[in-house]
Structures are given as structure tokens and as C-alpha cells.
Amino acid sequence: MSKPTLTMLAALIVSVAPAAQAADDLAPGPSLATQATDGIRVLYNGYFLGFRVMKADVRATLDGDSYQSEAVFRTAGLAGMFKDSRIEASVNGEVNGHGIEPGHYEHRNLASSKNRLIQIDFTPDDVVPTITPPFGSMGQPPATHDERMGTFDPVSAFLTISLEGGDAPCERTVPVFDSKQRYDLRLEPVAFERIDVRGFDGEGWHCNVYYDPVSGFDPEDLADPEDYARPMQIWLADLGDGRWAPVRVRARVSGVPVSVEAKRVELSDSDQRRRAESDDDSDRG
Fold first, then answer.
1. What is the pTM for the complete model shown?
2. Helix, strand or coil for residue 179?
3. 3-state secondary structure of 197
4. C-alpha dihedral over 7, 13, 15, 16, to 10 degrees?
5. Are 48 and 252 spatial neighbours (Cβ–Cβ below 8 Å)?
6. How far is CA 64 from the centre of its chain?
């Protein structure tokens, strides 16, 4: 499997498809600050040629006007198609009337000999990556200041789509910046239909997703134009109240299907916890 193809799949799981559009362009949806849900976790397995080659664990918690989120992404080598990797990422930021606004993001590939630490700081005036040790190239051409502004780190993207999808989660173009590469994930609706995976059985949106490189790519980073013209597919589980979780991703690599599916979806609800604690108190009384 080519590096670009793996990047495209990881973009839909660890970056897990769409971040919101820039705040001024975001269609209004249920505000995170007003929802009872204050936590989400999704565990994924990825399969290629029938073999499990990927695992991911994405979780997030909200606390009033702030949030934090973590993701672990692991791949296992298969006939030279996948390199072993273990990426651990985390982010914290603010929650306001516009939704998610990342503050500080970092990730490290613990299976890499370089043990590179990637950090991104989001400020009102700039989006600044710090890479240690630095990349040999920041792309041809590198992402500009204007291209970086209004983007989301890969992990914040998951939380945004999961808890602020609104009524049309497949009708958006998602700007993502991963410290070097700037790309859009362009979603188009296919159908609202039944979804049956290990971690979810219910209804949700089936979307086509196009990966559109913008800047920060070296020639060897790019796939063939035909790969970008062929959409991946994603299914977003309807969790209620305008909340969604990506629970299935499918693509074809050299004619062979690749799939990623949620094996568990967990929501934590502060109201539910308070009710449970109240019941416990009553039982003890």
C-alpha cells in the first residue's frame, strides 16, 4: 500500500474525517457547550486482504468551555504494504459559540527510529508547527499562513464531526493541517441508511469523501490523480441530537477493498452519571 493511500485512510480515522469549516462558514448545529454529552470514545479495527492491519482508539472529554482529546493509531506490517507504526496524539482547546477551537496539538510515532515530536500551536493570529527533529522538506510549496488559518488538527477533527455534525454532516468541505500537509476532506452525501457494524447497529449517513491536497506535499507524497478522483466512503452513525460518529470507512487499493470499522462506540453523559450517583446515594440510605 502506498504512503499516500495510508495517509488518506488515516485522515479518515485518526483525523477521522471531517473537521468543521472555518468558524465563520460553519453551518449552525447543536452547540457542544449546551449538550449533556461530555465524552466520546470510539475503537476501530482496520482490515486489508482479510487481515487486521490497523487499530485506533479515539477519545475526548469536554469540561465546560474546554476540551481535551487523545488518539492512538497502530498499524502492523503486512508483506511490505504497511509499516509498523504507533502514533499517540493529543490536543486541548476551547469550546465556544463556534464549536471546537484547538489550542495545542502534539503527536509522536513511537515505532519510528526518529521518534519525531510534532506540535502545532493554534493562536488567533497564526497556526505554528514545531517539528523535532525537523522534516527535510515542508513541501513544494509549503503551506502558507493563509492556508493554515481556519484549519483543525487531525484529532480535533474527530470531536467536531462527532458532536457538532448538525443535520447535514456529509455536506461540508473540511480543512486539515497536520503540521506539514494541508488538505481538504470533501464530503458528499450518498444516502441515509442502515449501518450494521460490531460497534453500532442503527441508522446513519453514508458519504463519499474526496481527499484534496492543497499544499505541503513533496512529489513522493502524492498519489496518482486517479486515486484522488476515486472517493472513499464513510458511514456516520446517528447518535441523536445532531451528533455523529464515523463507524465505517471503505476504500479500494489496487482493486482490493480496505475497510475500517468501529468495534465500540461509547458516550458518557454528565446527566446520566448524576442520576446514577443519586440512585447510589438512595440505595445506601
1. 0.79
2. coil
3. strand
4. 130
5. no
6. 22
